[in-house]
Amino acid sequence: MRVIEAIRRELEPLNREILAALKPSGEALRRFVANQLYIVPHDLKALSVAMSKARERDEYRLVKLLVDGDYRALELLRELAEEVGVAFSWDAVDPSAVSYTHFLSWLALHGTLGDLAVAMTVNLPVWGENCAALARWATGRGYSKLGFLEMFAGPYDELEAEAEAVAERYLDWGRYRFVARAIQRYELDFWRAISST
Questions:
Q1: Model pTM above 0.70
Q2: 105-123 pLDDT per residue, tens
Q3: Which of 2, 23, 156, 175 has its CA 20 to 30 A from that of 118?
């Protein structure tokens, strides 16, 4: 069994919790945007730092895919923020919602590219499912600037193909299990924080 597939199977119960945590509402959408305005720029910077660790061609390709994705996401997020009437504010940043990006910065500084490959490919499809669900809800309420949410719906085939080889190169099951479990716990915290009433 491939590395990422094996770890993803171990995380199925936690991933189901993440998918169940989203409770769409107007307030949840505004909290989503408010916290993503903090998260996405920091994710982009963390991934740029991670690029300095690349040695092999597939490692450069992997990190570039992630950087390019976040750069595009930042532009689309600004469009969504304008539509929902949310501007960045430190007062709107919920520490429970943004712990994910702090962990990504830790990975960029202290992790291997194998750790990053596992974290991103375990996380993005689940994140994408909830983004797609929120996009469907928002579409039904007349919102139209939903490119940020829709871009994460996948598929992630190209990313996973690059990530698997990198994960195998740095294989460390103990680290990988910790990294994957941690990033998904932070993902769960994000959806719970924006969906809280």
A1: yes
A2: 999 999 999 999 999 999 9
A3: 23
